[in-house]
Design goal:
By secondary structure, the protein is of the alpha+beta class. It has helices at about 40-45, 45-60, 95-100, 105-125, 170-175, 180-195, 205-215, 225-235, 245-255, and strands spanning about 10-15, 20-30, 30-40, 70-75, 80-85, 125, 135-140, 140-145, 150-155. A hairpin with a 3-residue loop joins strand 2 and strand 3 (about 30-40). It catalyses: L-seryl-[protein] + ATP = O-phospho-L-seryl-[protein] + ADP + H(+); L-threonyl-[protein] + ATP = O-phospho-L-threonyl-[protein] + ADP + H(+). Its EC number is 2.7.11.1.
Length: about 280
């Protein structure tokens, strides 16, 4: 996939430690600083887990969108497996939210950029499955969707899913299959959080969250009425009644209503006078 090997990277510091991999700030010739993802030994030795990591490497290097975290280099399988991703010094959107709510204009910008990346993944035949602020990265004045390790082909018939309970669609709590509609719901939860400064559903336990997603309406907002209605439709309990992501993004661009086309000035009527 590229000429770089794992040994070409110099580790600078540990950025994160997950269940399946460690992520380091590293540097390599020609790339500069990167986020280097190294699968754990048990992942490399497990056929199912190693295949999942190999797919993540392949997809990270092949999927290209301005608002997806870029894959730079990687080796998919074996003891030398790794994935080098662009390093974004701004951290995650979740970390940014810990410092306080985003201004409305900035929240809209973040949602539009991440939403376009999500639509791109759907068009390429994949679900992200774990849309949430901790998987959105701040890149200067822009935002990028990351963590492609949970990508799932749209046609995958398995009822298994990845995701976080705070952002999980009601049908997934009931054993339904993930779909673009369930992904739109997760995006809707994040949109509500960014636009209002709070999550729509809370719970101390998994069962509390389950009941909230299944039964409770989102609390009132002070958003423009058209945007508020669209957000509530995006969070519909029934996926058949749920607004699609593309339509929501269009409302987000024009919360007061679609722009009107400039009217052509009317030509003055011409009257003909006939003399007898």
């Amino acid at each position: 996939m590229n000429s770089l090997k794992r040994k070409d990277f110099r580790l600078l510091m540990l950025l994160g430690l997950g269940q399946t991999a460690q992520v380091y700030l590293a540097e390599a010739p020609g790339l500069g600083k990167v986020a280097l993802k190294l699968p754990k030994k048990e992942v490399r030795q497990d056929p199912r887990l190693s295949e999942r990591f190999a797919r993540e490497v392949t997809l990270a290097l092949s999927l290209k969108h301005p608002h997806l975290v870029r894959g730079l280099a990687g080796v998919p399988l074996g003891e030398e497996a790794f994935l080098a991703l662009e390093y974004l010094e701004g951290g995650t959107l979740e970390e940014r939210l810990h410092r306080g709510p985003l201004p409305r204009e900035e929240a809209v910008k973040a949602l539009l950029e991440v939403g376009e990346a999500l639509l791109y993944l759907h068009e390429k035949g994949f679900l992200h499955q774990d849309v949430k602020p901790s998987n959105v990265f701040v890149d200067g004045e822009h935002y990028k969707l990351g963590d492609l390790g949970t990508l799932r082909p749209l046609e995958d018939p398995s009822p298994e899913y990845a995701g976080s309970p705070h952002y999980l669609a009601p049908e997934l709590f009931l054993g339904g299959r993930p779909s673009p509609k369930s992904e739109a719901y997760a995006f809707g939860v994040m949109a509500y959080e960014l636009l209002t400064g709070r999550r729509p559903f809370k719970g101390e336990t998994l069962e509390d969250l389950r009941q909230a997603h299944l039964l409770l309406p989102p609390p009132p907002t002070n958003l423009p009425p058209r945007l508020d209605r669209a957000l509530r439709r995006l969070l519909a309990k029934n996926p058949a009644e749920r607004l699609d992501l593309r339509s929501f993004l269009e409302v987000l661009r024009h919360p007061q209503g679609p722009p009107t086309e400039p009217q052509e000035p009317k030509k003055p009527k011409r009257f003909l006078f006939w003399r007898k």
